[in-house]
Design a protein that fits this description.
cytoplasm, 10 helices, metal-binding, mainly alpha, magnesium, globular
Amino acid sequence: MITDAALCWLQQILGHDPADKDNYHRALTHGSTGKPDYQRLEFLGDRVLGLTIAEMLYARYPDEAEGRLSHRLNSLVSGATCAEIARNIGLPTHIILGKQARDDGAQNSDNVLGDIMEALIGALFLERGFADARAFVIAHWSPHIEAATKAPKHPKSALQEWCAAHNRKTPEYAVTKKEGPPHAMRFEVTVTVKGYDPVCATANSKQAAETAAAEFFLEQYS
């Protein structure tokens, strides 16, 4: 059952009284609770977000090539950007966590916040359709698009360039852990650059984990 505080918050950020409260409750629920969680809604919301951002970029940058648009898209749908927007709208307070995840600081994790942000978009899409979900994304992502004066590099490309500039060999990525059921597998990837401590990241796909590991490495060492 969704709390009164979470319901009031949803009314504020969505601009209406949610009709399908169960889906929004699920969107806010982490797997550590042992209850139905956000992952299926995240899958859906990720697609809605990606399509909307792609449409926005196509209109905003009519002369840019596909490669540069893809770099912008990757940055805008990244876990870090989704987590930043989640914090801006007050999401962390309303995440439903199991004790261990709460003790581990999952409430402030970019991965968790980003995933739940996408799950909320998925829940909104199911309740009100694409037009309302699209409007929500436009409202909260537009400032980030307008602030992007040049296309950012993908973290893996940026790390490779950083290694070249510092006379280091190409970074090596390795899957160091896989866990979870087949439909919700989590991958831990470790990136190694000679002369530096390895950096790990976890995500729902190998590619996303590699991207996050590269991003964390650059945050730590660049």
